[in-house]
Amino acid sequence: MATVSSNSLGEMLRSARELRGLTLERVARETKIPQRHLEAFERDNLTAVPSGFYQRAELRTYAQAVGLDQRLALAELESALAPVDARETRENRGGQASMSPLPYIVAAVAGIAVIAALFGRASVEPAPQLEPQVETPAATDSAPTPGTLTSEIAASSVAPQVAADPTQAAAPVPARSVTALVVTTQPEGARVTVNGIGWGASPATIQYLEPGQKRIRVSKEGFVAVERVLQIDEGRRLTLDIRLEPAP
Question: Using an 8 Å Cβ cutoff, are 233 and 211 in contact?
Fold first, then answer.
């Protein structure tokens, strides 16, 4: 495994490739990765390579082809992608902090002025004179008794209660199964590729594959290479065991 000390992911890949005396054309031919993607990796132009699963798969295959530690390459990829999100967050925060408080100050001063004007007007105007009025209660037979009035108030103060409907309870969300493919060979140590992308040596466990038809190829020096075509369904775990025959 090559040991490379560089400042960026692209420099690491280029140094490892040149250390092994490989050209981009040869790496592209052996790994089935488009040469423009290899060039984008070496220039740290990650936006030119499809993101997500395929970006990481191509980087792992490229690192393996030039003898670079795959885990180190993936760690450098995550480090290169992280500053983009952090920079956007800082810009958003900076935009919010740069908003001027002047409109809020003007609105507060205007509100205080309106309140002061209303209080000043109320203190100047004289209060109206009220004449005492004496009302004679009319004797009626339909006047409610104290007991009846108390009962009506008590009845109106009771809030209606609605029984919870048990059928409206949220149904539990079933756990999503992981799509996986396990490839074993006899003998072990064969190189495993799925649709031209390398996944290391057997036995190999490949997770989070996209559903669909996949072409699996295993090869080992001194043995006849074998290819299989499988249909991968989402949420299923498949095991493929291949016995390699010695080369004639």
Answer: yes
